[in-house]
Amino acid sequence: MSNSERLATTGDRLAKTGGIMMVSGCMLALLFWVVLPLGIFLIALAATSTEGALAVGIAALLVGGFFWLVFRSTRAK
Q1: What is the per-residue burial (b if ≥16 Cβ within 10 Å, else e) of 66-76?
Q2: Domain boundaries, the chain
Q3: What is the pLDDT of residues 13-48, one digit of tens each?
């Protein structure tokens, strides 16, 4: 196997690994941006008053937004 073939094989492996990392990063952002805030909001709605649930839901959205911004900034590099 020549050096160029080894380099091409290594490049293919890196591309596959990068694709898997990108998909898992998208899933993580989706988890923090949609699923986690919605779940916290629904739990708070069931456990407390509406105002408390709204406050917890807004806080969860802010935390999810922070993680989404972190994901976007690391993905852009």
Answers
A1: eebeebeeeee
A2: 23-76
A3: 767 766 666 666 677 777 777 777 777 777 666 666
